[in-house]
Amino acid sequence: MNLFNIQLFQNPFFYLPFHSSGWVGWLAMLALVLLGGGRIWRISDFRRPVKWNVFLVALLLVPLAILLLELQLSILQSGAVPNLPLEVNRTGVLVFVAFPIFFAAGLAGLLPSLLTGLFTGLFLGLFATHDLFSIVEWGFLGLFIGIALSQSYRTAFYKMLRHPLGGAVIVWIAYLPIFLFVSFFAIPGNLAERLDFALAQNWPQYIVRGIELGFGGLFFELIYLFLPALWKKPQQLLPSPNETSLQSRFLLFTVPLAVLLFVILILADWWVAGQAARQMMESRLQGLTRVASQSLPYFLESGQSLIIDFAKPDLVQKSNSEVQLLLMEDIRAVPYFRQLVVFDKGGQPLNAYPAEGSMDLRLSPDEEVGIALALNGVIVQVYPIPPYPGEKSAQVAFIASIKDETGIIQGTILGRTDFESNPFTQPALSALEGVLENGGEGFILDEQGNILYQTSNATPLTAADQFLGNLQVGAGLYEDTSPTGTRLLVLAEQVTGRPWQVVARVPASVAQQIALNIAIPTLVILLILFGTGSALMFGIVRVVTRNLLKLTDQAVHISLGELDHAIESKGNDEIGRLAKAFETMRISLKKRLEELNQLLVVSQGVAANLEISEAIQPILKAALDEDCVSARVVLIQEVQLDLEGDQLVSWGVGKQPDLYHHLDGQIFEQMRSHHLLSIPNTSRVRRISAVGGQPHPAALIAFGLFFETTYYGALWLAYDKPKNFSEDEVRFLNTLASEAALAAANSRLYASAEIGRRRLEAVLTSVPEPVLVFDEKDRLLLLNPAAIHVPGLISAALPGRPLQDVVSSENLIRLISGSLEDRIASREIQLSNGKVFYASVAPVMGEDYQVGKVCVLRDITHYKELDALKSEIVATVSHDLRTPLTLLRGYSTMLNMIGELNEQQQIYVNKIVSTVEDMTHLVNNLLDLSRIESGIPLKLEEVDPMIVVEKIIRQYQPHASQKNIQLTFEGPQDGRRLMIKADLALLQQALINLVDNAIKYTRNDGQVMVRVRPGNERLTFEVHDNGIGIAPLDLPRLFEKFYRSGRREAYEKRGSGLGLAIVKSIAERHHGRVWVDSQLGKGSIFYMELPVDQPLTITEEAVRNGGVANLKK
């Protein structure tokens, strides 16, 4: 324990970041601290003098807090900082170092806490740690402590955070990522060394920092509790983020937990990778040192054996030249020793090989002792001796006694060898070279710790003191630290039979690199999983909060009366059920408001319309709900001026508004004496009798329409399913019934004053032709007596009745109900009594819209009879012409049999025959047209249209080939077979006429295609050609009898003008239609559309009016 560290001021300096990534990390962390300071400055009230004084006192306390009381705890000794001297590593606990920061945060606020933290880091880095990262490290601590003690949020967690001791614990935990980043960026070395230091070696410093924060938090916690007046406390507590935002609540819980889990996983991954790398390195080094330690005894034993063999008496008895020769032979026989030296009894050298330098032979003290011992009877000795100059291997001296035949010692022999040149040491040296390949060093040490051999020159052979007392032989792989701060992994193995050791050591960075290689895949996967998990977590939270925000917005909309924004409820979870509850509330409120709006619209409609038909419509529409099939009102006839007598008037709306109109009378009578009639299930309550053969509702509700004391009718709703009527529904419908009664009373008053229309009726009465006037709803307004007196025209001459109830002729109904589009529509109408009228329907326009229709009919029965007479005369004449034409053709062809005709005569005969054929064709067409129009019943049968068309194609294929025309046929695309009910002969004739015309008016090398296209219960035949086309002026009259185009190209082709008229008649006889699309010079498309099924009987009226030739331009 150091009470006062005055020596800190003796050596102020900073270690700058050792690499570019260190600078990047330091600048990034400094930028974050300054960014936090900038945001704090904008909200700080640091301008008060009291806070300035507190801040200055805190700054003055910083040096004192650092110098006073440093505790040295041996259990918190951290690993050495890689590649830095050991003396720069501080492991002591500065007890008071955090006091100034807590003092500034508790008494002055957030910004003074941050500045005090930066100043503390600056002072520590300059005098204690010499680390530039101390500035940002303590800056973050000051920022975190200031935030913890100055925040003004409520809830128990934030209350605990405002306590100095609780804040110190939370800040220490939150400081962990900053500590890891600082540990990683602050030290020199490669990536693996820095990662290992940050994740595995520097945890004691983190504990030291926690103890320092704990001392500060504990001291100021006592002040907080016992001197609360001195402590800065918030005036008003604010809702915490987890109270104001579900997203914040979720993130404040999950993000720290996820970060902590991520850090734990990274630490665990690195620890596992480090242990695996350490085991791999230990296994490698142990294998190499074991090989070396096991091969060295053989080297020593071989040397001892050889030196004993070489110790022969001849070495001291023979001449020098002979001894030289013996020594040379011994060395060359077994290349073990580098030098052999022979000594006499007095220990003086007699001879040596190699002889160079033998006279100046210098013996080591061990060799001198060994020679003396050998002369005294020790048989063999082994001594390590220093190396030759410039060599990295020490020498080994083997000494043996030379005895004569009687066993008397006559001298000694000394053999010197080294580890590099001796072949018996090569296995051991190769094993130690393996250590070098793994990035380390290998050593062979003697019993005094002297280096006998080393794999590199990095360590001098004389530096034996670094091994003395430090080797842990047989302890496996252990850590050591070099004087330069390099962490080493060391493994020592005892040589068998000798007190020598084989030592292998590698820098810890090698194992760290292996650990990094092992850990990187897992770290990458963790990063990916953490990133993906974070993104998913934020996404899920975002979805949940977005749905809640939508619900909040919807609540705001509802509070503002905006009820048109539907709420999407996805899923059946809590949020989904909440959304459904909101949607139910919205729909309920909207329904109430819609009812009020409907009542307003109804009131406005009743006030704005005196005509009951207009005033009653909003009421019926308002009464109609989703389950209601028909909403109807039945009223007395006095509400409309057009009706006389006791007939009731009624209107209906809904899916089937007139489905239950037959019950109007019963309900009208029932409600004379009741204001309300509610029948939830008509099968149980039979207040309303069912009409035989008519549908009957499953439930109904009716309201009597009373205004003052007068009964006007009933408003009733019919349902096709049983229904229980709620009080809200009954109340709303009763309000509508009151409005209906008011509308009926107003209309009755209006009808009684409607006199002006009588004048118009008088004018129409004087018109001799039938005239009918309808409103825009196709309800009868007026009709003159002439229309009433036409038999079979009018079925119910009652104003206000629908068109279908007034007019008997279906064709006239279709003509009147059709769209006019600001034009007059005309058509021949045949009534059931045989009369034929030419009907014209014109729109009655108001200012800019149609307010009604007027229909005028002219009797053209006489003209139709004249036309029929003409057709009969034409048919008779045509029939009478057939016999003379046949005779004329026969005699013309027989002229060639009487005798040879000259060329001119042959030309005349050919012209006669050609003219007769044209007249015959014309007569046949006239007869065919007459038969078709005469109303002869069709011979209906099931016909396959594809077979008919294929037959016609085969028939006309030669004719088309003569003009090189491509005649093709195209059936339905789905390939299905279709059947049509038609007169086969007439269908063939119509198609033949169309195909013949197409080929006739198509130029050579053209194309004609016949297509059959199915439709909805109808079948369309299309004949396409790319011929001369039809002029737009000819299109309207193209299907008239005897009409031919005035164009020269058309007159060049022979024809009667009856072919298309026949096609039209055949189509109309089959209740079909025919039309044409054509462009002049580009070709034409003729369409003939026929129904798939025909009625069983076909009347003359159906022939005339069943189909109309329409032209599409």
TrEMBL record:
<dbReference type="GO" id="GO:0005524">
    <property type="term" value="F:ATP binding"/>
</dbReference>
<dbReference type="GO" id="GO:0000156">
    <property type="term" value="F:phosphorelay response regulator activity"/>
</dbReference>
<keyword id="KW-0418">Kinase</keyword>
<feature type="domain" description="HAMP">
    <location>
        <begin position="542"/>
        <end position="594"/>
    </location>
</feature>
<keyword id="KW-0808">Transferase</keyword>
<dbReference type="GO" id="GO:0030295">
    <property type="term" value="F:protein kinase activator activity"/>
</dbReference>
<dbReference type="GO" id="GO:0005886">
    <property type="term" value="C:plasma membrane"/>
</dbReference>
<dbReference type="InterPro" id="IPR005467">
    <property type="entry name" value="His_kinase_dom"/>
</dbReference>
<dbReference type="InterPro" id="IPR029016">
    <property type="entry name" value="GAF-like_dom_sf"/>
</dbReference>
<dbReference type="InterPro" id="IPR003594">
    <property type="entry name" value="HATPase_dom"/>
</dbReference>
<protein>
    <recommendedName>
        <fullName>histidine kinase</fullName>
        <ecNumber>2.7.13.3</ecNumber>
    </recommendedName>
</protein>
<dbReference type="InterPro" id="IPR036097">
    <property type="entry name" value="HisK_dim/P_sf"/>
</dbReference>
<dbReference type="InterPro" id="IPR004358">
    <property type="entry name" value="Sig_transdc_His_kin-like_C"/>
</dbReference>
<dbReference type="InterPro" id="IPR003660">
    <property type="entry name" value="HAMP_dom"/>
</dbReference>
<keyword id="KW-0597">Phosphoprotein</keyword>
<dbReference type="InterPro" id="IPR036890">
    <property type="entry name" value="HATPase_C_sf"/>
</dbReference>
<dbReference type="Pfam" id="PF02518">
    <property type="entry name" value="HATPase_c"/>
</dbReference>
<keyword id="KW-1133">Transmembrane helix</keyword>
<dbReference type="InterPro" id="IPR000014">
    <property type="entry name" value="PAS"/>
</dbReference>
<feature type="transmembrane region" description="Helical">
    <location>
        <begin position="169"/>
        <end position="192"/>
    </location>
</feature>
<dbReference type="InterPro" id="IPR035965">
    <property type="entry name" value="PAS-like_dom_sf"/>
</dbReference>
<feature type="transmembrane region" description="Helical">
    <location>
        <begin position="20"/>
        <end position="41"/>
    </location>
</feature>
<dbReference type="GO" id="GO:0000155">
    <property type="term" value="F:phosphorelay sensor kinase activity"/>
</dbReference>
<feature type="transmembrane region" description="Helical">
    <location>
        <begin position="93"/>
        <end position="115"/>
    </location>
</feature>
<keyword id="KW-0067">ATP-binding</keyword>
<dbReference type="Pfam" id="PF00512">
    <property type="entry name" value="HisKA"/>
</dbReference>
<keyword id="KW-0812">Transmembrane</keyword>
<feature type="domain" description="PAS">
    <location>
        <begin position="756"/>
        <end position="827"/>
    </location>
</feature>
<dbReference type="InterPro" id="IPR003661">
    <property type="entry name" value="HisK_dim/P_dom"/>
</dbReference>
<feature type="transmembrane region" description="Helical">
    <location>
        <begin position="53"/>
        <end position="73"/>
    </location>
</feature>
<dbReference type="Pfam" id="PF00672">
    <property type="entry name" value="HAMP"/>
</dbReference>
<feature type="domain" description="Histidine kinase">
    <location>
        <begin position="876"/>
        <end position="1094"/>
    </location>
</feature>
<keyword id="KW-0547">Nucleotide-binding</keyword>
<dbReference type="GO" id="GO:0007234">
    <property type="term" value="P:osmosensory signaling via phosphorelay pathway"/>
</dbReference>
<feature type="transmembrane region" description="Helical">
    <location>
        <begin position="251"/>
        <end position="272"/>
    </location>
</feature>
<keyword id="KW-0902">Two-component regulatory system</keyword>
<feature type="transmembrane region" description="Helical">
    <location>
        <begin position="122"/>
        <end position="149"/>
    </location>
</feature>
<keyword id="KW-1003">Cell membrane</keyword>
<feature type="transmembrane region" description="Helical">
    <location>
        <begin position="514"/>
        <end position="541"/>
    </location>
</feature>
<keyword id="KW-0472">Membrane</keyword>
<dbReference type="InterPro" id="IPR050351">
    <property type="entry name" value="BphY/WalK/GraS-like"/>
</dbReference>
<feature type="transmembrane region" description="Helical">
    <location>
        <begin position="213"/>
        <end position="231"/>
    </location>
</feature>
